[in-house]
Design goal:
alpha/beta; Rossmann fold; four-stranded parallel sheet; about 45% helix; binds D-glutamic acid
Length: about 250
């Protein structure tokens, strides 16, 4: 049996990336870690996020992973550079999918929904410099908590989305970037709030990048059954069933 791929997030949001990666790489073994005990990362200072990430990455390395996927925009912005410098294995990160969303610009605005930490870090400033025309950064306050509590398409999710987006919806909106992996699970509730507005996330691109990197390094598994193991730093009785549910959502 080949070595597994380690994939992690602050919480259950990364399951949206895991789902995509499993579909694209059906022969791989995935080890998923949700750092639910420390979510949300998006309200923490970069140094605090890096400390959380180091602990999760140490866990994954102790299980001999062949590659790391940071299924979290916030953790990528805070820690990807350091991880790549320190580790010899491939590290695949994420960023808000502003580049593909930019192609949808049609004289309206592009709302970039992401955590406060993501929006305040250097990596996002650089992204805005390149693709920021018409883009309006929007802090998704309360949305991660909503998903961590399993509210995906109910009154709770609708009211959290409403309070985040209402101040911005008086102008024509060409696209909304889901710049946090948790928000992908709010797609249905969001479509109800902004029918017809394209919702753009970076998950498929991240899965494709993972496949490219594995292929290039001769690490891609092309035969045998794939699998995934779910872990949490939080309460397993609460988070493992939620992860299972989201994996099928
Ligand atoms: N899911 C994460 C992201 O993609 C972070 C959520 C959080 O913990 O604030 O940014």
């Amino acid at each position: 049996m080949g070595r597994p791929i380690g994939i992690f997030d602050s919480g259950v949001g990364g399951v949206s990336v895991l789902r995509e990666a499993m579909a694209l790489l059906p022969n791989e073994r995935f080890l998923f870690f949700g750092d639910n005990a420390h979510a949300p990362y998006g309200a923490k200072a970069p140094e605090e996020i890096r400390a959380c990430v180091r602990a999760v990455v140490d866990e994954l390395l102790s299980r001999d992973v062949k590659a790391l996927v940071i299924a979290c925009n916030t953790a990528t912005a805070a820690a990807a550079k350091d991880l790549r410098a320190a580790l010899s294995l491939p590290v695949i990160g994420m960023e808000p999918a502003l580049k593909p969303a930019h192609a949808l610009l049609h004289g309206g605005q592009i709302l970039v929904l992401a955590t406060p930490a993501t929006l305040h870090m250097e990596k996002f400033r650089l992204l805005m410099e390149r693709y920021g025309e018409g883009a309006v950064p929007v802090e998704g306050r309360g949305l991660v908590e909503c998903v961590e509590a399993g509210h995906l398409d109910d009154a709770c999710a609708a009211s959290a989305l409403q309070s985040v987006l209402a101040p911005h919806l008086s102008r024509p909106t060409d696209a909304i970037v889901l710049g946090c992996t948790h928000y992908v699970f709010l797609r249905r509730a969001l479509s109800r709030l902004v029918p017809g507005v394209p919702l753009v996330d970076g998950n498929a691109g991240t899965a494709r990048q993972l496949r490219r990197v594995l292929e290039a390094q001769g690490l891609l598994e092309t035969a045998g059954p794939g699998s995934c193991e779910l872990h949490t730093t939080g309460d397993p009785a609460r988070f493992l069933p939620l992860m299972e549910r989201l994996l099928r959502a």
